[in-house]
Design goal:
mainly alpha
Amino acid sequence: MSNPSAVSTFVVWDYVVFAGMLLISAAIGIYYAVVDRAKQSSKDFLIGGRTMTAVPVALSLTASFMSAVTVLATPAEIYRYGAIFSIFSISYLFVIVICSEFFLPVFYRLGITSTYEYLEMRFNKVVRLCGTLLFIIQTVLYTGIVIYVPALALNQVTGFDLWGAVVSTGVVCTFYCTMGGLKAVVWTDVFQVGIMVAGFVSVIIRAIVIRGGLTPILQDAYDGGRINFWDFDVNPLRRHTFWTITVGGSFIWIYIYGVNQSQVQRYIACKTRLQAKMSLYINLLGLWIIVGCATLAGLSMYSVYRDCDPWTAGKVKALDQLIPYLVMDILRDFPGVPGLFVAAAYSGTLSTVSSSINALAAVTVEDLIRPQFTSLTDTKLSWISKGTTLLYGLMCIGMAGLASLMGGLLQAAITIFGIAGGPLLGLFVLGIFFPWANSVGALVGVIAGFALSLWVGIGSQMYPQPLAYSRPLNLSTAGCNVSFTFPDVNLTDVVYLPTMPPLAMMETTMQVGVTLAEERSVVVDNWYSLSYLYFSTVGTLTVVAVGLVISIFTGGRKQYVNPEMMFLAKEDFPKCSFKCHKDLSTDNKSETGQWKSQNSLVTDMGTINAAFTDIELNYPETNERTNGIRL
């Protein structure tokens, strides 16, 4: 198309398709509430009774990854900066292998519900509480923004009612999470991932028809410099290169798949460890498919608008609105299909928010309520879990309302979410890979790591990275038949989607001609210009480095570490080359030859360390689930 046309708005069939997606999602929640009504334990509600299989869990993991960010922001990223973003496919391979072989076995052996239980087992209650509170704060902020920001982007382009979408998606998501627990979340994700792929495919097929085939699309992308996969510049200030994506991106996603409660809670719900590992590897195929769809959608959008960019022509206010604009432009003659794409975007929102709500309920019950009220029965804990899920759902809807009033603070909130993952990952790396790390080192390390990540994250928002480091590709308005004018952009209206770099903020600064009057210092030009993909890396490495140094200076680990909490298998642990201040010997074992608890040396087989008193030994007939916490 040579000229962005006046796009249409939603029609009745579009609303029907969208409403159908919400109704089916709610029906899945009702189904599992009825089917599992006889199961009243909190374990059944929060982790599905550990009866899930690999395929639905894998699709659920994929749906959680494929949020509205992927549907709306990733094609716009490729449209503006080229297909180098697809190099994330390489980092996903590293991430899945590392998480399945090093992190998953530890959490599955211990049979825990909340990943932060591990922090108390390995360190102490203070470290566990720090991790729990940091997760709760960042997740509540994140989920509220995930509900509101896509609704704003779609409303400004499609005319879809903003608050109708916010409230309806929030209410439906809260409903099926509260009614059906983790099983409802997983199976709803399976349905929603199908909707999301269908939305992408509809856009790609229509673009191929318009452009006369896939070859012209790829040729246009090549001519426009969008086929830019291999950039091996090692400069850490460059926004996207092979190294920033494969190294920095791997740290980000290891946090998400390795230790983040929302993802870990899914695969530890599998009935065997083999099924859990299979779910991660099947999920890898899903990630590759999604990245491929998003990349092709972005290249198709560039081919359609190669001569008349809607953004620089003032048709949209922010890059994140480009893909909804394309949908309403090229699919307006197909009633219901634009509604399918909007349903795809909101399916991403539902899958992300539902996993977050379920994870918030799990950590609240397991980390804050159960340890303080040890006399609560499973039935009462199940009702508390449902009540907590409802409460967090309402909080996220309220956070979405607050997000609409925050304006420029949205960037700060999202930055806090992004940089919190690195320090949390560092805590688990300390515990799993370094047996001499102690609780003092862990606590000081996480404070130092979070402070440093927060410093660079906020600084990068105050002083946007120079365009020389981001190298946006050329966009043309030659075919628009209009004189070039910058759009009238209100900074508080800029859509900025989670986990993505400050694209909108950088582009808006360029559009309205804002320049920083103050002289840029060395810190600003270097430290604050660090690629956003390295923020998590900075946090993780700082926690590990500071934690190890402080641990050494405070005497290291005084007690023996339970081998089940390390990445090595129990039978391999005595063969390792490192020492835990004393050689591992038979003095550290019970009479049966099994390892004793990590916090104290018990004197007989009938005494169990206090760190394990709150852990239920479910499924005693399955040795794989209990051997990490019994003598």
